[in-house]
Amino acid sequence: MNIFIKRNNNVSNERGFTLIESIVAIFILLIAIVMPMAVVARALFAANYAQDQITAVYLAQEGVELVRNTRDNNVLSGSALWDQGDLSNCYGASGCYVDAVHSSNMVNVCSGTCPYVQEGVGGGISWYGNNSDWGNTKYIRTIKLSKISDYEIKVNSTVTWATRAAPRTVLVEDVITNWP
Question: Mapping DSSP to helix (H, G, I), strand (E, B) and coil, where does residue 65 land?
Fold first, then answer.
């Protein structure tokens, strides 16, 4: 009589992942996901900061141009005092702000700090100025004048704002002269 003993060859010698292998795999997966997200977050912050800074530079440059425009209007109207009239409000420590929305470019003295520049939106375009019907932006523009001579004044147009609670400042400085 023959007796056959059958061996079970189906028993697997493979074992599952150990706990350490699982932790290492999860760690590598987390790094692969978190690192690109951190890079994207940093890039978005840099893009927003660049946008804020570009807007501030343009607003500061506009401040100088508004003073130049007021000077031109003084000269064209025949005023003997090219740097006076509305511009006389900008001499001194407090400075002034110019309402660029109205055609008269009204120059106003800042009491304490100057008001926020307002923004209005129409037709997909943002308009910056000082219109009480618009909403405040994060920017404050201060214009200060100092007399260099009878024919020259120095214009300092400063725009301040805060990004992530850190104060930021842009200063555009120019010297404008009287033209006969």
Answer: helix
pTM: 0.74
* Cβ-based neighbour number of residue 30 at 10 Å: 10
Helix (H) or strand (E) holding 86: none
CA–CA separation, 150 vs 144, rounded Å?
A: 17
Please name the residue that has the structure tokens 């260099």: 148
> Using CA atoms, how far apart are residues 63 and 97, in angstroms rounded to an integer?
8
Which band of pLDDT confidence, cut at 50, 70 and 90, is reported for residue 56?
A: very high
Rounded Cα distance, 98 and 144, in Å: 11
Sequence-ordered alpha helix ranges (H) in the chain? 19-76
Confidence (pLDDT) at 54 = 95
Distance CA 86, CA 104 (A): 10
